[in-house]
Amino acid sequence: MLSIQDLEAGYEDSMVIRSINMNVEENQVICVMGRNGVGKTTLLKTIIGLIQPKNGKIQYKSGDITKDRPSQRARNGSGYVPQGREIFPKLTVLENLQLGLEAGNVKTINEQVYEYFPILKDFAKRNGGDLSGGQQQQLAIARALVSNPSFLLLDEPTEGIQPNIVEEIQAVIMDIKQSSQTSMILVEQNLDFVKNVADHLYVIDHGSIVYSSPIANVEDEEVYRYLTV
Question: PROSITE patterns from the xrefs (predicted)?
Fold first, then answer.
C-alpha cells in the first residue's frame, strides 16, 4: 500500500527526519510515537505532500508519489487529519465537510460519517468555530472520511479531547479497520490508545526511527524511555 524508503525532509536548511523506512500494508494501522519536536508531524506532512522531501522515495499503490502535489495525493485516495484540527471556523459544519469532497473529487458525502458522528448532522448549519474542541476534532476526522479514503493520516487525534470523545474516535478507527481496506498512520502520545487500535508501532527520536515492534510485542518500558523528557 505505502512504502517509505530512506526519507529525509525538513524546513529550509534544517533536516528534521532522517533515513525513515516504513511499510504500511492494506488495512493496517501503524502508530508513530515520540516526544514533541522529534519529527512526527513533519513525517506526516511529507507523506501527504505538504513538505517536499530532500531525499528518499514514497511509493503508494505501487506508484512513485514522491513529487506529487497534495491535491494529487488526495484524489488518489489519501486523507489527512492535521494536528490542531484546522477546521474552517467561519464555515458551517456542512461547508467544512463539502470541502473534504473537493479534496477527494467526490460528489456526495458518505453517510457513514454521520453514523460515526451524529452530532455533525444535528449541527450541520452551525459554524465550525462554535463547536467544542472535541466536536471540532470529530469534524476534522469526518472531513477526511467523506471522500472514502483508502489511506488515512491522523496527527494526534486525541490531543486535548475529553475521554468520551476519545472513546468515540477509537471506536471509529476500529470500525474502519474492520469494515474496510483503509490503511492508517496515526501519530499519538497515548500508549494505551495505541495498543488498542494499532498493528505496529514505530518510535521516532531526533528524526529517526529508534524502536519498531508489532503491537503484540511492544515493551512498554522501552517505549516510555523515548517518551519521557
Answer: ABC_TRANSPORTER_2
